Amino acid sequence: MRSSAHIPFATLRRRCGVLVGVATACAFYALGSTGAEALDLDGTEGLITETIASRERLKDYDDIKLYGAERVSDRDRNYAKPDGIRSGNYFIFPEVGATVVYDDNIYRSNAHKEADWRSEITPAVKFQSHLPRHILDLSLDGKIVNYLNNTDQDYANVRAKLDGALHFDHAHTLSASVLTALEHEERGELLSDTSAAKPIEVFHNRASVGITRDVGRLYGTLMATFERWDYSDVASINGPVVDQDYRDTSEFSTALRFGYRFSPGFEFVGKIRALQDLNRGVGSDDRDAFGYEAMAGLAFETNPLLRWRLLAGYGIRNFEKDSIEDVSSALLEAQVQWLPTQYMTFTGSATRQILAADAVEPSGRVETRLLGRLDYEIWHNVVLNLGVEYRDAEFIGDPRRDKTITGRIGLDYWMNKNWRLSLGYEHAVRQSTEDEFDMTRNRFTVGAKLLF
Q1: What's the whole-model pTM score?
Q2: Mean per-residue pLDDT for 272-278?
Q3: Whole-number pLDDT of residue 36
Q4: CATH classification number, 4-451, choose in 2.40.70, 3.40.720, 2.40.160, 3.40.50
Q5: Using 50, 70 and 90 to split pLDDT, how confident is the model at 4?
Q6: How far apart are CA 246 and CA 287, in angstroms?
C-alpha cells in the first residue's frame, strides 16, 4: 500500500478538507461504544443530513483511504460484514448478541455495595433501504437483562426507530426520524430516584423533522423536535409504591445548524437552539422552562492526519416558577482526531452543557465531560481499544457535585461474516459531596454477536 508520505501535502489537504466536520462527528460516536453514553455532538437528533451534492463530495475522501489516511473504524472489513437478506429494494440484517457481565457494584453505591453476574441478550433487525434516490430505514432492537442472584433487578428494553430522507433536488434533503422505546433506569444512575427498589420503566418517544441545504461553501440544517419521557411508578426500598408521574417531561425544540467552508480544510460552524420543557413537578411546583443556546467556532485540520472542531457559546434555562433557580453557563464543544499511524486512531472530546431536570434535581445540572479513546488494529480482524472519561456534574440549587472517572479497555474480534467476539473491562470511581452517591465499580464483560 502506498504511504501518505509519498503524496503531496496539497493533494491530501484538498482531499481531506471536505470531510473535517463529517469525519470528526463520526469519530466521536465511536467513543460511546465501550460503554459510555454516546454524544450527539452535531445535535441533529438522528436526522439524515446528507444531500446528493455532499455525497458526491465524499468521493474525494474515499480516495484518501488508498493512502492510509483513515480511521481504524473505517478500515476495509467487507470480509466480515454480513450479507443480509435481499427483499426487493431492502436488505434485512438480523442479529442477536449475548453478553455476560460481572459487576461488583450493581447499585452504583458504596453504601449498598452488591456484586452479581448478569446476562444481556440483545436481538435486533434492520431494514436498510436501497432505493434509487431516497432513504427509508427501519430498525427494531431490544435488551433483555437477567441477574443471577438479584432477579428483582431484571428488565427488558425494546425500541423501534424509523429514519427517512427525501432528496428532492441536488442540494436539498427533507428528513424525518421517529423513535419509540421502552427503557429502564437502573438503580444508582446519576438521576435515578434513590428510594426505588428496582429499575424504573421509562416510555421514551421522539419525533424530529428537518431540511438540509448542502452544496458549495454554505450549508445548514433547520430542524424541529418533540420528545417525551413518561416514568412508571415503582416499588420503594421500604415497600410502598413511589409515584413517578412528577418526573414526566415533554420537550419542544427547534435548532439551526450551519457552516461555511471558506477554504479547503477550514470551516466556520455554528448552532442555535431554542427549547421549552414541560414538567409539572410536585404539587404546585410547576417546573416548566424555556431554554436558549448558541455556539460558534471552527472546524479545521492542522494536517490531513490531525483534525479539530472547536465551538464555544452560552446557554440559559429560565424557569417560569420564580422559586426555582434559573441556569446559565458557558458552553463548549472541542474535538480532535489524530491518526499517528495507519493502524492507530486517537479521538478525544471536551464538552460543557446544560442538562435539564426532570424534577429529581432542583434546577438541573451543568456537566463538563472529557473523553478520550485510542483504537489500535493488532491484526486485520482484531482491534484493541482504550478509553477514559471524566465527568463533572454541578447541580444547580443544590450543594451536590459529582465527579466521575472511568477507564475502559476492550478487544474486538471479527471472526467471520457471522460472528463477532468481544472482551472488556471497566473501572469507575465517583466522588460526590454527598456520601450516599460515592461509588467504586468494576465490570468485566465477555460478549458474542451472531449476524446474518
Answers
A1: 0.84
A2: 95
A3: 39
A4: 2.40.160
A5: very low
A6: 10
